[in-house]
Design brief:
By secondary structure, the chain is α/β, with parallel strands linked by helices. It contains 13 helices and 9 strands. The longest helix is centred in the last third of the chain and has 25 residues.
């Protein structure tokens, strides 16, 4: 069986990769993927070529339980960078960002790979515009529009809404901000600083990420996107087609799902509080942006009230 150790494996673009790449971007997509059932193989084959339109290169680190067939497919496509022995989110996320910095590009965009594939099957023009125009901002936080967030299961929406409010209060930011995708674009200097300061290993990493983004020495640009709507149905489109999206969503209204989401909420908020105690109150401000001609919600307010087109 192939050695999947991240310390020994660093995927390089193969001949197939070179032929299909057409992007003029210099932004690198740094992703992680958890696919134990191998359910996303079809999505990878269909939509990864479309993702290449937006990025100069891509790297994907996978969880230890991801199917071997998925790892093989990612390696065949020239984006696989390995996995880790321990099933911990923090080290895996840092691995993807660190490997992204080894590629030739001005910036690294962190985004879970299943979300990236879902975005590619939908409003790819939105993703392309985001990536291209992120070059104006050293630190760019990407959130979901209210509609995109509310497309998810109720347990996720309720707990993440509470967590987003907790994080915003801790950062001194007024109004709605979605920290919990997670998705952000960092220039090389900011990405190196982020990696140097990041310590969390478990699922609290989302809270640490939010705190660190405001401690990198730059104001944080923020934009919300429609393409970050619910990606989980992509793993089981046959069932979704048979029972309908609403019935499929209702399957997540279970005690164990709520318990998982509340545990995640506690871990994220605790990790955020720890990083804020360690680093102190941030000097960075949130600068709300709009993507193209689509304005952000008029109810969105921050310490910097102007809305800036990116």
């Amino acid at each position: 069986m192939p050695n999947r150790s991240a310390s020994r494996r660093s995927s390089q673009p193969n001949a197939t990769t070179s032929r299909v790449r057409t992007s003029q971007s210099d932004v690198i997509l740094a992703s992680t993927l958890h696919d134990p059932g191998g359910d996303l193989a079809g999505e990878i084959r269909r939509w990864l070529p479309r993702l290449r339109r937006a990025y100069a290169d891509m790297v994907v680190a996978t969880s230890p339980s991801t199917a071997e067939a998925t790892n093989d497919l990612l390696e065949e496509r020239g984006v696989f960078i390995g996995t880790l022995a321990a099933n911990e989110r923090g080290p895996l996320y840092r691995l993807s960002i660190r490997e992204g910095l080894r590629r030739s590009g001005s910036r690294v965009h962190y985004l879970d790979f299943d979300r990236a594939l879902h975005w590619a099957r939908g409003p790819i023009h939105e993703l392309e515009a985001l990536v291209e125009r992120s070059k104006r901002h050293p630190v760019l936080l990407v959130g979901r529009t209210p509609a995109a967030h509310e497309s998810h299961q109720e347990a996720l929406v309720v707990t993440e809404t509470e967590t987003n409010r907790h994080l915003a209060r801790g950062l001194g930011v007024r109004g709605r901000v979605d920290f919990m995708v997670p998705s952000f674009v960092l220039d090389r200097e900011a990405a190196r600083a982020f990696l140097s300061a990041s310590r969390t290993r478990g699922m609290g990493i989302y809270g640490e990420m939010a705190g660190l983004l405001f401690a990198l020495g730059h104001d944080v640009a923020y934009v919300e996107c429609d393409g970050l709507d619910w990606e989980t149905p992509d793993r089981d489109r046959r069932t979704v087609s048979r029972v309908g999206l609403e019935a499929y969503r209702d399957r997540f209204d279970r005690h164990d799902e709520w318990r998982l989401r509340y545990a995640l909420q506690r871990a994220v908020e605790a990790a955020f509080d720890r990083v804020r105690a360690r680093l102190g109150h941030p000097a960075a401000r949130l600068r709300r942006l709009r993507l193209g001609s689509r304005p952000m919600s008029s109810s969105s307010l921050s310490r910097t009230p102007s809305t800036i087109a990116i």
